Amino acid sequence: MHKLLVEGGSRLRGQVRVSGAKNSAVALLPAAILAESTVKIEGLPDISDVGILSDLLREIGGEVHKDGRNISIDPSNMIAMPLPNGKVKKLRASYYFMGAMLGRFNRAVIGLPGGCHLGPRPIDQHIKGFEALGAEVTNEQGAIYLRAKELRGARIYLDVVSVGATINIMLAAVRAKGKTVIENAAKEPEIIDVATLLTSMGAKIKGAGTDVIRIEGVKSLSGCLHTIIPDRIEAGTYTIMAAAQGEEMIIDNVIPQHLESLLAKLREMGVTIEENDEQLYVKPGDKLKAVDIKTLVYPGFPTDLQQPFTSLLTKAEGTGIVTDTIYQARFKHVDELRRMNASIKVEGGSAIVSGPSKLQAAKVKASDLRAGAALVIAGLMAEGVTEITGVDHIERGYENITNKLIELGAKVWYEEMSDEEVEQFQDS
Ligand SMILES: CC(=O)N[C@H]1[C@@H](OP(=O)(O)OP(=O)(O)OC[C@H]2O[C@@H](n3ccc(=O)[nH]c3=O)[C@H](O)[C@@H]2O)O[C@H](CO)[C@@H](O)[C@@H]1O
Ligand SMILES: C=C(OP(=O)(O)O)C(=O)O
Protein backbone atom coordinates (compact mmCIF):
# COMPACT_ATOMS: atom_id res chain seq x y z
CA MET A 1 0.00 0.00 0.00
CA HIS A 2 1.38 3.42 -0.83
CA LYS A 3 0.84 6.99 0.26
CA LEU A 4 1.12 10.20 -1.72
CA LEU A 5 3.50 12.92 -0.56
CA VAL A 6 2.97 16.51 -1.61
CA GLU A 7 5.56 19.17 -0.85
CA GLY A 8 3.80 22.48 -0.75
CA GLY A 9 4.91 25.85 -2.04
CA SER A 10 5.86 25.27 -5.70
CA ARG A 11 3.95 27.46 -8.13
CA LEU A 12 2.46 25.46 -10.99
CA ARG A 13 2.95 26.47 -14.59
CA GLY A 14 2.59 24.94 -18.03
CA GLN A 15 0.02 22.77 -19.68
CA VAL A 16 -1.92 19.77 -18.44
CA ARG A 17 -3.95 17.49 -20.69
CA VAL A 18 -7.29 16.28 -19.40
CA SER A 19 -8.16 12.59 -19.86
CA GLY A 20 -11.43 11.02 -21.00
CA ALA A 21 -14.39 11.37 -18.66
CA LYS A 22 -14.59 8.78 -15.88
CA ASN A 23 -18.35 9.09 -15.50
CA SER A 24 -18.83 8.55 -19.23
CA ALA A 25 -16.31 5.73 -19.48
CA VAL A 26 -17.94 3.77 -16.69
CA ALA A 27 -21.27 3.80 -18.57
CA LEU A 28 -19.90 3.40 -22.12
CA LEU A 29 -18.14 0.14 -21.23
CA PRO A 30 -21.26 -1.65 -19.90
CA ALA A 31 -23.27 -0.17 -22.80
CA ALA A 32 -21.21 -2.36 -25.13
CA ILE A 33 -23.02 -5.40 -23.67
CA LEU A 34 -26.07 -4.33 -25.69
CA ALA A 35 -24.37 -4.67 -29.08
CA GLU A 36 -24.08 -7.74 -31.25
CA SER A 37 -20.67 -6.90 -32.69
CA THR A 38 -17.51 -5.12 -31.63
CA VAL A 39 -17.72 -1.73 -29.94
CA LYS A 40 -14.57 0.40 -30.03
CA ILE A 41 -14.08 3.30 -27.66
CA GLU A 42 -11.25 5.79 -28.01
CA GLY A 43 -9.77 8.09 -25.40
CA LEU A 44 -10.57 6.18 -22.22
CA PRO A 45 -8.92 7.42 -19.04
CA ASP A 46 -6.31 5.11 -17.52
CA ILE A 47 -7.96 4.79 -14.11
CA SER A 48 -8.79 1.87 -11.87
CA ASP A 49 -12.58 2.07 -12.45
CA VAL A 50 -11.99 1.40 -16.17
CA GLY A 51 -9.71 -1.56 -15.36
CA ILE A 52 -12.32 -3.12 -13.06
CA LEU A 53 -15.18 -2.70 -15.54
CA SER A 54 -13.05 -4.23 -18.31
CA ASP A 55 -12.44 -7.24 -16.04
CA LEU A 56 -16.17 -7.52 -15.35
CA LEU A 57 -16.89 -7.49 -19.09
CA ARG A 58 -14.39 -10.34 -19.48
CA GLU A 59 -16.03 -12.23 -16.59
CA ILE A 60 -19.32 -12.35 -18.49
CA GLY A 61 -17.60 -13.61 -21.66
CA GLY A 62 -16.66 -10.39 -23.46
CA GLU A 63 -13.55 -10.31 -25.57
CA VAL A 64 -11.88 -7.14 -24.40
CA HIS A 65 -8.69 -5.75 -25.89
CA LYS A 66 -7.16 -2.65 -24.47
CA ASP A 67 -4.50 -0.76 -26.36
CA GLY A 68 -3.49 2.29 -24.34
CA ARG A 69 -6.51 4.56 -24.23
CA ASN A 70 -8.48 2.58 -26.79
CA ILE A 71 -10.56 -0.47 -26.16
CA SER A 72 -12.43 -2.95 -28.30
CA ILE A 73 -15.20 -5.03 -26.77
CA ASP A 74 -16.66 -7.97 -28.65
CA PRO A 75 -19.86 -8.81 -26.77
CA SER A 76 -21.07 -11.62 -29.06
CA ASN A 77 -20.23 -14.45 -26.64
CA MET A 78 -21.37 -12.73 -23.47
CA ILE A 79 -23.73 -14.61 -21.17
CA ALA A 80 -26.02 -13.50 -18.35
CA MET A 81 -23.45 -14.53 -15.73
CA PRO A 82 -24.49 -13.48 -12.20
CA LEU A 83 -22.12 -10.96 -10.61
CA PRO A 84 -23.37 -10.88 -7.01
CA ASN A 85 -19.99 -10.21 -5.36
CA GLY A 86 -16.38 -9.38 -5.96
CA LYS A 87 -15.36 -6.52 -8.22
CA VAL A 88 -18.87 -5.06 -8.57
CA LYS A 89 -18.59 -3.84 -4.97
CA LYS A 90 -15.47 -1.79 -5.75
CA LEU A 91 -17.13 0.95 -7.72
CA ARG A 92 -20.39 2.77 -8.16
CA ALA A 93 -20.85 2.25 -11.86
CA SER A 94 -21.19 -1.52 -11.69
CA TYR A 95 -24.89 -0.67 -11.42
CA TYR A 96 -24.85 -0.07 -15.20
CA PHE A 97 -24.48 -3.84 -15.64
CA MET A 98 -28.07 -4.03 -14.36
CA GLY A 99 -29.55 -1.93 -17.16
CA ALA A 100 -27.27 -3.27 -19.88
CA MET A 101 -27.67 -6.97 -19.00
CA LEU A 102 -31.40 -6.57 -18.51
CA GLY A 103 -31.57 -4.90 -21.92
CA ARG A 104 -29.64 -7.69 -23.64
CA PHE A 105 -30.64 -10.84 -21.72
CA ASN A 106 -33.86 -9.85 -19.92
CA ARG A 107 -32.15 -10.85 -16.69
CA ALA A 108 -29.24 -9.97 -14.44
CA VAL A 109 -27.89 -10.57 -10.95
CA ILE A 110 -25.62 -7.76 -9.79
CA GLY A 111 -24.26 -7.04 -6.31
CA LEU A 112 -25.15 -3.67 -4.79
CA PRO A 113 -22.61 -1.10 -5.97
CA GLY A 114 -19.73 0.46 -4.02
CA GLY A 115 -18.15 3.81 -4.92
CA CYS A 116 -17.50 6.85 -2.79
CA HIS A 117 -19.14 6.97 0.63
CA LEU A 118 -21.00 10.25 0.44
CA GLY A 119 -23.89 9.40 2.77
CA PRO A 120 -26.88 7.37 1.55
CA ARG A 121 -26.80 6.57 -2.19
CA PRO A 122 -30.02 4.69 -2.88
CA ILE A 123 -30.83 3.17 -6.28
CA ASP A 124 -34.62 3.20 -5.88
CA GLN A 125 -35.10 5.30 -9.04
CA HIS A 126 -33.11 2.80 -11.12
CA ILE A 127 -35.34 0.04 -9.80
CA LYS A 128 -38.50 2.06 -10.35
CA GLY A 129 -37.43 2.43 -13.99
CA PHE A 130 -36.62 -1.27 -14.48
CA GLU A 131 -39.97 -2.25 -12.95
CA ALA A 132 -41.83 0.19 -15.19
CA LEU A 133 -40.18 -1.53 -18.17
CA GLY A 134 -41.59 -4.85 -16.98
CA ALA A 135 -38.81 -6.33 -14.85
CA GLU A 136 -39.33 -8.04 -11.55
CA VAL A 137 -36.67 -6.76 -9.16
CA THR A 138 -35.71 -8.32 -5.82
CA ASN A 139 -32.88 -7.74 -3.40
CA GLU A 140 -31.53 -11.06 -2.20
CA GLN A 141 -28.67 -10.93 0.30
CA GLY A 142 -27.18 -7.74 -1.06
CA ALA A 143 -27.54 -8.56 -4.74
CA ILE A 144 -30.20 -7.24 -7.07
CA TYR A 145 -32.03 -9.89 -9.12
CA LEU A 146 -33.72 -8.61 -12.27
CA ARG A 147 -35.96 -10.78 -14.43
CA ALA A 148 -38.32 -9.91 -17.28
CA LYS A 149 -40.24 -11.99 -19.80
CA GLU A 150 -39.98 -9.09 -22.17
CA LEU A 151 -39.12 -5.41 -21.68
CA ARG A 152 -41.78 -2.97 -22.84
CA GLY A 153 -41.38 0.78 -23.20
CA ALA A 154 -42.97 2.94 -20.51
CA ARG A 155 -43.34 6.52 -19.31
CA ILE A 156 -41.08 6.98 -16.27
CA TYR A 157 -40.98 10.09 -14.11
CA LEU A 158 -37.87 10.23 -11.92
CA ASP A 159 -38.74 11.49 -8.42
CA VAL A 160 -35.11 12.53 -7.99
CA VAL A 161 -32.92 13.83 -10.82
CA SER A 162 -30.36 11.04 -11.03
CA VAL A 163 -27.47 10.59 -13.45
CA GLY A 164 -27.20 6.87 -12.74
CA ALA A 165 -30.94 6.17 -13.01
CA THR A 166 -31.26 8.16 -16.25
CA ILE A 167 -28.41 6.23 -17.92
CA ASN A 168 -29.46 2.87 -16.51
CA ILE A 169 -33.03 3.28 -17.77
CA MET A 170 -31.72 4.32 -21.19
CA LEU A 171 -29.58 1.17 -21.28
CA ALA A 172 -32.52 -1.06 -20.41
CA ALA A 173 -34.93 0.73 -22.75
CA VAL A 174 -33.01 0.91 -26.03
CA ARG A 175 -33.90 -2.69 -26.95
CA ALA A 176 -37.29 -2.76 -25.22
CA LYS A 177 -40.46 -3.11 -27.27
CA GLY A 178 -42.06 0.27 -27.97
CA LYS A 179 -41.51 3.76 -26.68
CA THR A 180 -39.96 4.87 -23.38
CA VAL A 181 -40.13 8.42 -22.06
CA ILE A 182 -37.89 9.41 -19.15
CA GLU A 183 -39.21 12.57 -17.49
CA ASN A 184 -37.24 14.69 -15.03
CA ALA A 185 -34.13 13.10 -16.51
CA ALA A 186 -30.64 14.27 -15.56
CA LYS A 187 -28.91 16.51 -18.12
CA GLU A 188 -25.21 15.90 -17.44
CA PRO A 189 -22.86 15.84 -20.48
CA GLU A 190 -22.05 12.21 -19.72
CA ILE A 191 -25.67 11.31 -20.47
CA ILE A 192 -25.35 12.87 -23.91
CA ASP A 193 -22.11 10.94 -24.43
CA VAL A 194 -23.76 7.63 -23.59
CA ALA A 195 -26.75 8.48 -25.82
CA THR A 196 -24.31 9.30 -28.65
CA LEU A 197 -22.67 5.88 -28.33
CA LEU A 198 -26.03 4.10 -28.20
CA THR A 199 -27.24 6.06 -31.23
CA SER A 200 -24.10 5.05 -33.15
CA MET A 201 -24.98 1.47 -32.22
CA GLY A 202 -28.39 1.96 -33.85
CA ALA A 203 -30.54 3.07 -30.91
CA LYS A 204 -33.27 5.68 -31.39
CA ILE A 205 -32.90 8.30 -28.65
CA LYS A 206 -34.12 11.90 -28.66
CA GLY A 207 -33.69 14.58 -26.03
CA ALA A 208 -30.56 13.41 -24.18
CA GLY A 209 -29.23 16.51 -22.40
CA THR A 210 -32.77 17.79 -21.75
CA ASP A 211 -35.06 16.67 -18.97
CA VAL A 212 -37.25 14.55 -21.25
CA ILE A 213 -35.61 11.67 -23.09
CA ARG A 214 -37.59 9.69 -25.65
CA ILE A 215 -36.47 6.25 -26.74
CA GLU A 216 -37.97 4.10 -29.46
CA GLY A 217 -36.89 0.52 -28.84
CA VAL A 218 -35.04 -1.36 -31.59
CA LYS A 219 -34.59 -5.12 -32.01
CA SER A 220 -30.82 -5.17 -32.15
CA LEU A 221 -27.79 -2.96 -31.86
CA SER A 222 -24.47 -3.28 -33.64
CA GLY A 223 -20.87 -2.33 -32.93
CA CYS A 224 -19.46 1.12 -33.61
CA LEU A 225 -16.55 3.46 -32.91
CA HIS A 226 -16.95 6.15 -30.28
CA THR A 227 -14.65 8.84 -28.91
CA ILE A 228 -15.26 9.78 -25.29
CA ILE A 229 -15.70 13.38 -24.06
CA PRO A 230 -13.06 15.00 -21.81
CA ASP A 231 -13.47 14.69 -18.06
CA ARG A 232 -15.05 17.95 -16.86
CA ILE A 233 -14.37 17.04 -13.22
CA GLU A 234 -10.67 16.36 -13.80
CA ALA A 235 -10.52 19.57 -15.85
CA GLY A 236 -12.26 21.44 -13.03
CA THR A 237 -9.88 20.00 -10.46
CA TYR A 238 -6.81 21.25 -12.39
CA THR A 239 -8.51 24.61 -12.94
CA ILE A 240 -9.05 24.93 -9.19
CA MET A 241 -5.42 23.89 -8.63
CA ALA A 242 -4.33 26.61 -11.04
CA ALA A 243 -6.36 29.16 -9.07
CA ALA A 244 -4.89 27.87 -5.82
CA GLN A 245 -1.23 27.48 -6.67
CA GLY A 246 -0.73 28.31 -10.33
CA GLU A 247 1.39 31.00 -11.89
CA GLU A 248 -0.12 30.51 -15.32
CA MET A 249 -1.64 27.26 -16.48
CA ILE A 250 -3.30 25.92 -19.59
CA ILE A 251 -5.83 23.17 -19.16
CA ASP A 252 -5.99 21.30 -22.45
CA ASN A 253 -8.71 19.02 -23.88
CA VAL A 254 -11.64 20.74 -22.20
CA ILE A 255 -15.18 21.57 -23.28
CA PRO A 256 -15.42 24.96 -21.50
CA GLN A 257 -19.26 24.99 -21.65
CA HIS A 258 -19.24 21.93 -19.36
CA LEU A 259 -17.57 24.01 -16.65
CA GLU A 260 -19.53 27.26 -16.80
CA SER A 261 -20.71 27.19 -13.18
CA LEU A 262 -17.17 26.65 -11.88
CA LEU A 263 -15.61 29.25 -14.17
CA ALA A 264 -18.20 31.84 -13.13
CA LYS A 265 -17.38 31.27 -9.46
CA LEU A 266 -13.62 31.42 -10.05
CA ARG A 267 -14.00 34.69 -11.95
CA GLU A 268 -16.05 36.07 -9.07
CA MET A 269 -13.11 35.21 -6.81
CA GLY A 270 -10.72 37.23 -8.98
CA VAL A 271 -9.20 34.51 -11.15
CA THR A 272 -8.47 35.35 -14.79
CA ILE A 273 -9.71 32.66 -17.15
CA GLU A 274 -9.63 32.76 -20.91
CA GLU A 275 -11.40 30.10 -22.97
CA ASN A 276 -10.99 28.80 -26.46
CA ASP A 277 -12.55 25.75 -28.10
CA GLU A 278 -10.50 23.19 -26.21
CA GLN A 279 -8.42 25.00 -23.64
CA LEU A 280 -8.60 27.17 -20.57
CA TYR A 281 -5.89 29.65 -19.67
CA VAL A 282 -5.91 30.27 -15.91
CA LYS A 283 -4.05 32.92 -13.94
CA PRO A 284 -4.97 33.63 -10.32
CA GLY A 285 -5.34 37.21 -9.17
CA ASP A 286 -3.09 38.67 -6.43
CA LYS A 287 -5.83 38.06 -3.90
CA LEU A 288 -8.76 35.68 -3.95
CA LYS A 289 -12.16 36.79 -2.67
CA ALA A 290 -14.36 34.25 -0.84
CA VAL A 291 -17.62 33.22 -2.51
CA ASP A 292 -20.50 30.93 -1.60
CA ILE A 293 -21.30 27.84 -3.65
CA LYS A 294 -24.30 25.54 -3.73
CA THR A 295 -24.08 22.26 -5.61
CA LEU A 296 -26.93 21.48 -7.97
CA VAL A 297 -27.70 19.10 -10.80
CA TYR A 298 -26.13 20.04 -14.15
CA PRO A 299 -25.68 22.79 -15.29
CA GLY A 300 -25.40 23.89 -11.64
CA PHE A 301 -22.19 23.66 -9.63
CA PRO A 302 -21.14 19.98 -9.63
CA THR A 303 -21.01 18.17 -6.30
CA ASP A 304 -17.85 16.42 -7.53
CA LEU A 305 -16.00 19.76 -7.49
CA GLN A 306 -17.33 20.89 -4.14
CA GLN A 307 -14.54 19.26 -2.12
CA PRO A 308 -11.64 20.58 -4.25
CA PHE A 309 -13.28 24.02 -4.25
CA THR A 310 -13.47 23.99 -0.44
CA SER A 311 -9.66 23.68 -0.33
CA LEU A 312 -9.33 26.72 -2.59
CA LEU A 313 -11.62 28.75 -0.33
CA THR A 314 -9.14 28.36 2.57
CA LYS A 315 -6.88 30.71 0.60
CA ALA A 316 -9.56 33.33 -0.11
CA GLU A 317 -10.24 36.43 1.96
CA GLY A 318 -13.51 36.38 3.83
CA THR A 319 -16.10 33.72 4.54
CA GLY A 320 -17.35 31.28 1.92
CA ILE A 321 -20.33 28.99 2.51
CA VAL A 322 -20.34 25.62 0.73
CA THR A 323 -23.69 23.86 0.56
CA ASP A 324 -24.07 20.44 -1.06
CA THR A 325 -27.68 19.85 -2.03
CA ILE A 326 -26.88 16.56 -3.80
CA TYR A 327 -24.97 14.82 -1.00
CA GLN A 328 -25.67 16.66 2.26
CA ALA A 329 -23.01 14.63 4.09
CA ARG A 330 -20.17 15.06 1.56
CA PHE A 331 -17.92 16.80 4.07
CA LYS A 332 -15.44 14.13 5.18
CA HIS A 333 -12.61 16.20 3.77
CA VAL A 334 -13.32 19.01 6.23
CA ASP A 335 -11.78 17.31 9.29
CA GLU A 336 -8.65 16.59 7.28
CA LEU A 337 -8.40 20.18 6.05
CA ARG A 338 -8.76 21.32 9.66
CA ARG A 339 -5.77 19.15 10.58
CA MET A 340 -3.92 21.27 8.05
CA ASN A 341 -4.92 24.45 9.89
CA ALA A 342 -7.92 25.41 7.77
CA SER A 343 -10.65 27.30 9.55
CA ILE A 344 -13.83 25.43 8.56
CA LYS A 345 -16.90 24.35 10.44
CA VAL A 346 -19.80 22.24 9.23
CA GLU A 347 -23.17 23.58 10.27
CA GLY A 348 -26.61 22.51 9.08
CA GLY A 349 -25.45 20.87 5.86
CA SER A 350 -22.98 23.61 4.91
CA ALA A 351 -19.26 24.06 5.39
CA ILE A 352 -18.32 27.57 6.45
CA VAL A 353 -14.80 28.42 5.41
CA SER A 354 -13.07 31.46 6.91
CA GLY A 355 -9.93 32.56 5.15
CA PRO A 356 -7.27 33.10 4.40
CA SER A 357 -5.54 30.37 6.42
CA LYS A 358 -1.89 29.48 6.19
CA LEU A 359 -2.14 25.75 5.63
CA GLN A 360 0.39 23.44 7.32
CA ALA A 361 1.36 20.00 6.08
CA ALA A 362 -0.13 17.06 8.00
CA LYS A 363 -0.79 13.33 7.75
CA VAL A 364 -4.25 13.10 6.24
CA LYS A 365 -6.57 10.47 4.81
CA ALA A 366 -8.51 10.59 1.56
CA SER A 367 -11.89 9.14 2.51
CA ASP A 368 -13.16 9.30 -1.07
CA LEU A 369 -12.09 10.33 -4.56
CA ARG A 370 -12.75 14.07 -4.47
CA ALA A 371 -11.72 14.35 -0.81
CA GLY A 372 -8.40 13.04 -2.13
CA ALA A 373 -8.29 15.74 -4.80
CA ALA A 374 -9.12 18.35 -2.16
CA LEU A 375 -6.19 17.16 -0.02
CA VAL A 376 -3.78 17.23 -2.96
CA ILE A 377 -4.76 20.87 -3.60
CA ALA A 378 -4.40 21.69 0.10
CA GLY A 379 -1.01 19.93 0.15
CA LEU A 380 0.21 22.02 -2.80
CA MET A 381 -0.68 25.21 -0.88
CA ALA A 382 0.61 24.08 2.52
CA GLU A 383 3.94 24.60 4.19
CA GLY A 384 5.85 21.31 4.47
CA VAL A 385 5.23 17.79 3.16
CA THR A 386 1.66 16.50 3.39
CA GLU A 387 1.20 12.73 3.51
CA ILE A 388 -2.03 11.45 1.99
CA THR A 389 -3.27 7.90 2.56
CA GLY A 390 -6.29 6.36 0.84
CA VAL A 391 -4.61 6.90 -2.52
CA ASP A 392 -6.63 4.13 -4.17
CA HIS A 393 -9.64 6.46 -4.04
CA ILE A 394 -7.71 9.09 -6.01
CA GLU A 395 -6.63 6.48 -8.56
CA ARG A 396 -10.30 5.65 -9.24
CA GLY A 397 -10.70 8.94 -11.01
CA TYR A 398 -7.45 10.77 -11.78
CA GLU A 399 -5.20 9.35 -14.47
CA ASN A 400 -1.53 9.60 -13.63
CA ILE A 401 -1.99 12.47 -11.21
CA THR A 402 1.62 12.48 -10.00
CA ASN A 403 3.11 12.70 -13.50
CA LYS A 404 0.67 15.41 -14.51
CA LEU A 405 1.56 17.42 -11.40
CA ILE A 406 5.31 16.90 -11.78
CA GLU A 407 5.06 18.21 -15.35
CA LEU A 408 3.46 21.34 -13.89
CA GLY A 409 6.37 21.79 -11.47
CA ALA A 410 4.85 20.27 -8.33
CA LYS A 411 6.89 18.15 -5.93
CA VAL A 412 4.84 14.99 -5.44
CA TRP A 413 5.82 11.36 -5.10
CA TYR A 414 4.61 7.99 -3.81
CA GLU A 415 6.13 6.13 -0.88
CA GLU A 416 5.42 2.64 0.36
CA MET A 417 3.61 2.66 3.73
CA SER A 418 5.23 0.91 6.70
CA ASP A 419 3.37 -2.01 8.33
CA GLU A 420 2.53 0.26 11.26
CA GLU A 421 1.10 2.92 8.93
CA VAL A 422 -0.98 0.33 7.09
CA GLU A 423 -2.36 -0.90 10.42
CA GLN A 424 -3.18 2.64 11.56
CA PHE A 425 -4.80 3.37 8.22
CA GLN A 426 -6.95 0.25 8.36
CA ASP A 427 -8.06 1.03 11.93
CA SER A 428 -8.95 4.66 11.16
C1 LIG B 1 -20.48 6.97 -11.73
C2 LIG B 1 -21.09 8.31 -11.71
O1 LIG B 1 -21.53 8.82 -12.73
N1 LIG B 1 -21.08 8.96 -10.56
C3 LIG B 1 -21.65 10.28 -10.47
C4 LIG B 1 -23.14 10.16 -10.38
O2 LIG B 1 -23.43 9.34 -9.27
P1 LIG B 1 -24.89 8.74 -9.11
O3 LIG B 1 -25.42 8.39 -10.45
O4 LIG B 1 -24.80 7.65 -8.12
O5 LIG B 1 -25.65 9.97 -8.54
P2 LIG B 1 -27.16 10.40 -8.80
O6 LIG B 1 -27.22 11.47 -9.82
O7 LIG B 1 -27.94 9.17 -9.03
O8 LIG B 1 -27.54 10.98 -7.38
C5 LIG B 1 -28.10 12.27 -7.23
C6 LIG B 1 -28.93 12.31 -5.98
O9 LIG B 1 -30.06 11.47 -6.15
C7 LIG B 1 -30.19 10.54 -5.09
N2 LIG B 1 -30.72 9.29 -5.66
C8 LIG B 1 -30.12 8.74 -6.76
C9 LIG B 1 -30.61 7.59 -7.32
C10 LIG B 1 -31.74 6.99 -6.75
O10 LIG B 1 -32.24 5.96 -7.21
N3 LIG B 1 -32.32 7.57 -5.67
C11 LIG B 1 -31.83 8.72 -5.10
O11 LIG B 1 -32.38 9.20 -4.12
C12 LIG B 1 -28.76 10.39 -4.57
O12 LIG B 1 -28.75 9.93 -3.24
C13 LIG B 1 -28.24 11.80 -4.72
O13 LIG B 1 -28.66 12.58 -3.64
O14 LIG B 1 -23.72 11.45 -10.22
C14 LIG B 1 -23.32 12.10 -9.02
C15 LIG B 1 -24.08 13.42 -8.94
O15 LIG B 1 -23.71 14.26 -9.95
C16 LIG B 1 -21.82 12.30 -9.00
O16 LIG B 1 -21.44 12.77 -7.74
C17 LIG B 1 -21.08 11.00 -9.26
O17 LIG B 1 -19.73 11.26 -9.54
C1 LIG C 1 -18.66 10.27 -6.44
C2 LIG C 1 -17.89 10.00 -7.47
O1 LIG C 1 -17.76 8.80 -8.07
P1 LIG C 1 -18.65 7.49 -7.90
O2 LIG C 1 -20.06 7.87 -8.18
O3 LIG C 1 -18.08 6.61 -8.96
O4 LIG C 1 -18.43 6.97 -6.52
C3 LIG C 1 -17.05 11.04 -8.09
O5 LIG C 1 -16.61 10.82 -9.25
O6 LIG C 1 -16.80 12.07 -7.46
UniProtKB/TrEMBL annotation:
<dbReference type="GO" id="GO:0008760">
    <property type="term" value="F:UDP-N-acetylglucosamine 1-carboxyvinyltransferase activity"/>
</dbReference>
<dbReference type="GO" id="GO:0071555">
    <property type="term" value="P:cell wall organization"/>
</dbReference>
<comment type="function">
    <text>Cell wall formation. Adds enolpyruvyl to UDP-N-acetylglucosamine.</text>
</comment>
<protein>
    <recommendedName>
        <fullName>UDP-N-acetylglucosamine 1-carboxyvinyltransferase</fullName>
        <ecNumber>2.5.1.7</ecNumber>
    </recommendedName>
</protein>
<feature type="domain" description="Enolpyruvate transferase">
    <location>
        <begin position="6"/>
        <end position="405"/>
    </location>
</feature>
<dbReference type="GO" id="GO:0005737">
    <property type="term" value="C:cytoplasm"/>
</dbReference>
<keyword id="KW-0963">Cytoplasm</keyword>
<feature type="binding site">
    <location>
        <begin position="121"/>
        <end position="125"/>
    </location>
    <ligand>
        <name>UDP-N-acetyl-alpha-D-glucosamine</name>
    </ligand>
</feature>
<dbReference type="GO" id="GO:0051301">
    <property type="term" value="P:cell division"/>
</dbReference>
<keyword id="KW-0961">Cell wall biogenesis/degradation</keyword>
<keyword id="KW-0131">Cell cycle</keyword>
<dbReference type="GO" id="GO:0008360">
    <property type="term" value="P:regulation of cell shape"/>
</dbReference>
<feature type="binding site">
    <location>
        <begin position="22"/>
        <end position="23"/>
    </location>
    <ligand>
        <name>phosphoenolpyruvate</name>
    </ligand>
</feature>
<feature type="active site" description="Proton donor">
    <location>
        <position position="116"/>
    </location>
</feature>
<keyword id="KW-0808">Transferase</keyword>
<keyword id="KW-0573">Peptidoglycan synthesis</keyword>
<feature type="binding site">
    <location>
        <position position="304"/>
    </location>
    <ligand>
        <name>UDP-N-acetyl-alpha-D-glucosamine</name>
    </ligand>
</feature>
<keyword id="KW-0670">Pyruvate</keyword>
<feature type="binding site">
    <location>
        <position position="92"/>
    </location>
    <ligand>
        <name>UDP-N-acetyl-alpha-D-glucosamine</name>
    </ligand>
</feature>
<dbReference type="InterPro" id="IPR005750">
    <property type="entry name" value="UDP_GlcNAc_COvinyl_MurA"/>
</dbReference>
<feature type="modified residue" description="2-(S-cysteinyl)pyruvic acid O-phosphothioketal">
    <location>
        <position position="116"/>
    </location>
</feature>
<comment type="similarity">
    <text>Belongs to the EPSP synthase family. MurA subfamily.</text>
</comment>
<dbReference type="Pfam" id="PF00275">
    <property type="entry name" value="EPSP_synthase"/>
</dbReference>
<dbReference type="InterPro" id="IPR013792">
    <property type="entry name" value="RNA3'P_cycl/enolpyr_Trfase_a/b"/>
</dbReference>
<dbReference type="GO" id="GO:0009252">
    <property type="term" value="P:peptidoglycan biosynthetic process"/>
</dbReference>
<dbReference type="InterPro" id="IPR001986">
    <property type="entry name" value="Enolpyruvate_Tfrase_dom"/>
</dbReference>
<dbReference type="InterPro" id="IPR050068">
    <property type="entry name" value="MurA_subfamily"/>
</dbReference>
<dbReference type="InterPro" id="IPR036968">
    <property type="entry name" value="Enolpyruvate_Tfrase_sf"/>
</dbReference>
<keyword id="KW-0132">Cell division</keyword>
<feature type="binding site">
    <location>
        <position position="326"/>
    </location>
    <ligand>
        <name>UDP-N-acetyl-alpha-D-glucosamine</name>
    </ligand>
</feature>
<keyword id="KW-0133">Cell shape</keyword>
<dbReference type="GO" id="GO:0019277">
    <property type="term" value="P:UDP-N-acetylgalactosamine biosynthetic process"/>
</dbReference>
<comment type="pathway">
    <text>Cell wall biogenesis; peptidoglycan biosynthesis.</text>
</comment>
